[in-house]
Amino acid sequence: MDIDSTRNKKRRHPLGWALWLAALVLVTATLLSFRDALDKAHVGLIYLLLVLGAAATAGLGAGLLTALLTFLSFNFFFLLPYHTFAIHDPLDWLILGSYLVTASVAAALLTRAEREASERIRLAREAEHAAALREIDRLKDAVLAAVSHDLRTPLTSIQALAYEMASEGDERAAIIGTEADRLNRYVASLLDLSALNSGALRINLEANTVEDVVGASLAHVATALDGRAITTRVGEGSVMVGRFDFVYTVRILANLLENAHKYSPPDEPLEIGARQVGDVVEITVSDRGTGVPDAERDRIFEPFYRPTGSPPDVGGAGLGLAIAQRLARAQGGDLRFEPRRGGGSTFTLTLPAAKLPAVDALTPAS
Ligand code: ADP
Asked: What is the pLDDT at residue 125?
């Protein structure tokens, strides 16, 4: 929220101006009935109070208008000759001029002080709110890490027992094993997410070729993709070298390929491409699926986000892209979505290109 919108939010009473004009008439009538007993200073001070009241409750405009009206009324009713705007004593001009300046400056200062005070309160509230959110986040990560960690040991025992029983021919045990595997992957993702959030994940940045990482990712998902056609356009003749963590990059690409497989018709080939643009390498994974609606393009990278109405049997817990994007950023790269021309999705992973020594420097001098 910016400062202007806060100022605009401050509601003035709609009757504020009218009430202060009525007060001005009332005060002037009262002062008039005691005119002979009053000194000019009394009139000036009482009018000044009126100006400050108008500025404080109805805003600067009302304050300045009251200053102007009281200035005229002061002259007309309380300075000789009465009931004209003419003035006999030149010193009265000094009184009137000083009154107008004092009233206007006081109204302006008062409204500014009031605005600054509410601005300070707003900033303090915002800071408090941000600190509370940070604390909630920290607690959430701590609970996530603790629970995930404690779940791993019993899960591993369940998996081991289930596989042992399955090897003895118990079909239900095979199902338990598969489900325990799924739960284990989910718990591992939760642990990774909390490690990424707290900056505790160790990233091993090294020079690697893009061809190798793409090849390893394709091998990694071969079983899950079940013989699906994949078009590869990598390098187009030149070797691309990036500076990235090989294992985590395989994980990002495997996740993108599995998503592309899950969210597009099986007879449409997937495409994986790579090119170097300046000092980054771009690896794209494209499909001809339904794509992602405009409103969800940023949200798909939020943890636990799954679009409303997505079938429960497709997809996971909505952690894949959140982890993939954080992993990309932790390596100095990024992961973003773009709609693919002709329909479908393109996910682009950018990673820093490796700065290699010039070819001349590698060639032995003859
Ligand atoms: P999930 O494990 O649910 O697939 P992800 O974080 O990998 O979680 O993806 C989040 C959501 O983004 C998915 O539920 C899906 O709606 C959408 N999504 C991801 N990849 C694609 C894709 N290639 N095409 C269409 N939608 C996708």
From this structure: 96
* Cβ(289) – ligand 1 distance below 6 Å: yes
Q: Which residues of the chain have pLDDT under 70?
A: 1-15, 237, 309-315, 357-366
Helical packing angle, 246-262 and 210-225, nearest 10°: 40
Distance 307 CA to ligand 1 centre (A): 8
Determine the distance separating the centroid of ligand 1 and the alpha carbon of 356, expressed in angstroms: 36
Question: pLDDT, tens digit, for every residue of 186-238?
Answer: 888 888 888 888 788 889 999 999 999 999 999 999 999 999 999 999 877 67
Rounded CA-CA distance 264/315 in Å is 12
Cα(187)–Cα(208) distance, integer angstroms: 29
Pick the closest to residue 58 from 31, 97, 22 (CA basis): 22
Q: How far is CA 46 from the centre of its chain?
A: 51
Query: How much distance in Å is there from the Cα of 186 to the middle of ligand 1?
Result: 15
Closest listed residue to residue 280, CA positions, set 251, 246, 254, 243: 243
d(CA 150, CA 59): 60
Q: Note the pLDDT of residue 359.
A: 52
What is the amino acid identity at position 164?
Answer: E
- Please name the residue ranges forming H helices in the chain: 3-9, 16-33, 40-58, 60-73, 90-167, 171-197, 210-225, 246-262, 320-330, 359-362
37-43: long-range contacts, CB 8 A cutoff, minimum separation 24: 38/78, 40/78, 40/79, 40/92, 40/95, 43/74, 43/78
For ligand 1, whether the C-beta of 339 sits within 6 Å is: no
Residue 337 C-beta-side C-alpha neighbours within 13 Å: 23
pLDDT for 13: 59
